[in-house]
């Protein structure tokens, strides 16, 4: 089978320090405060016992999160005072995998392999489930000119991993949080008194960020465009209304101070069977919270080989 020195950075941007913190917290949940203990493994397996294990896909999907394997093994080995197992990867993040396919081979102290097992499976299975969902949308949208986006509806503490997985599956990330893009919604408009007032307040306070405005109707979209929005979120619009709104915005592009291309994002009540229909309206993006809040895990397993 083919091998890889380490998982490909198909989706760059997963910070090493962040990953180390997440793995540390996950291990603390299982073992207790560092160094912690695994009372079953440490009672039944000698520290000197070595063995091999295979990380295997139990279902078809798109794999992501293989980047957690090395970090989890490294931290567990450090807690136990044992050498870190060697890892040979046979798949890369973002790759389509089949049931029974070996994703990685691990060799080293059995205590480390067993203590690390659930943590690395939890993280990689979760990431692979998100990547699998994103890949399904990416396939459905292929050739339309539109891309699928994620949202902030992520698992608390795992946003970076889940957004990484979306990229690995062929999707794209929207804002990472409340800090990098302004999103003017109805409550902000109420607080500021108007769409224009909200946009001007953001530009005055945080001139370095882009401003997106949520619109439920064509009239709201045009108001936001006139007020200087950088891009528009078209929320819960029936397909005919969405198409009309897109056409109205495109007709205004390049005129009266409107940018030559205004990015448009459809959201709300989006399902895979509607993906191409919605993309056909001419939007640039479809944002789908279900990529992260509802994607089932991809079933992965760690199979231990005979112990020496």
TrEMBL record:
<keyword id="KW-0808">Transferase</keyword>
<comment type="function">
    <text>Involved in the catabolism of quinolinic acid (QA).</text>
</comment>
<dbReference type="InterPro" id="IPR036068">
    <property type="entry name" value="Nicotinate_pribotase-like_C"/>
</dbReference>
<dbReference type="InterPro" id="IPR004393">
    <property type="entry name" value="NadC"/>
</dbReference>
<protein>
    <recommendedName>
        <fullName>nicotinate-nucleotide diphosphorylase (carboxylating)</fullName>
        <ecNumber>2.4.2.19</ecNumber>
    </recommendedName>
</protein>
<comment type="pathway">
    <text>Cofactor biosynthesis; NAD(+) biosynthesis; nicotinate D-ribonucleotide from quinolinate: step 1/1.</text>
</comment>
<comment type="similarity">
    <text>Belongs to the NadC/ModD family.</text>
</comment>
<dbReference type="InterPro" id="IPR022412">
    <property type="entry name" value="Quinolinate_PRibosylTrfase_N"/>
</dbReference>
<dbReference type="Pfam" id="PF01729">
    <property type="entry name" value="QRPTase_C"/>
</dbReference>
<keyword id="KW-0328">Glycosyltransferase</keyword>
<dbReference type="InterPro" id="IPR027277">
    <property type="entry name" value="NadC/ModD"/>
</dbReference>
<keyword id="KW-0662">Pyridine nucleotide biosynthesis</keyword>
<dbReference type="InterPro" id="IPR013785">
    <property type="entry name" value="Aldolase_TIM"/>
</dbReference>
<dbReference type="InterPro" id="IPR037128">
    <property type="entry name" value="Quinolinate_PRibosylTase_N_sf"/>
</dbReference>
<dbReference type="InterPro" id="IPR002638">
    <property type="entry name" value="Quinolinate_PRibosylTrfase_C"/>
</dbReference>
<feature type="domain" description="Quinolinate phosphoribosyl transferase N-terminal">
    <location>
        <begin position="38"/>
        <end position="128"/>
    </location>
</feature>
<dbReference type="GO" id="GO:0004514">
    <property type="term" value="F:nicotinate-nucleotide diphosphorylase (carboxylating) activity"/>
</dbReference>
<feature type="domain" description="Quinolinate phosphoribosyl transferase C-terminal">
    <location>
        <begin position="130"/>
        <end position="303"/>
    </location>
</feature>
<dbReference type="Pfam" id="PF02749">
    <property type="entry name" value="QRPTase_N"/>
</dbReference>
